[in-house]
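Whiteboard transcription, Tuesday session. T.W. wrote the structure tokens on the left side:
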């Protein structure tokens, strides 16, 4: 693989990591007002304070992430870097598998 492929995979994994708090919800059992809820996949790297009280119920509540620019949002660098590296390796493995699959099909057809 060329360096351009690695850069493209890194940019893709960076964008995916930035948007994971918006894609995946956090499910909690009981949340009080002002409690911090963690967001991010696979390592939670963004913490947001809850602003509305939730009704107590027996089922978990889905909490969605609002914005990075909210004043009640805390960002952690080390879990973000771990998430970025793990998503980079995931996309690198997927691209490697597709590359080998398509090269095998081309060799087989010739």
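and on the right, the sequence the group agreed on:
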């Amino acid at each position: 693989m060329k360096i351009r492929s690695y850069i493209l995979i890194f940019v893709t994994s960076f964008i995916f990591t930035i948007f994971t708090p918006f894609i995946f919800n956090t499910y909690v059992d009981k949340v009080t007002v002002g409690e911090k809820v963690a967001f991010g996949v696979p390592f939670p790297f963004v913490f947001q304070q809850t602003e509305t009280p939730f009704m107590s119920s027996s089922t978990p509540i889905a909490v969605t992430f609002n914005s990075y620019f909210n004043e009640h949002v805390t960002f952690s660098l080390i879990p973000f870097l771990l998430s970025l590296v793990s998503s980079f390796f995931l996309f690198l493995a997927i691209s490697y598998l597709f590359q080998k699959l398509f090269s095998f099909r081309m060799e087989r057809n010739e």
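Someone added at the bottom: The chain has one domain: 3-98.
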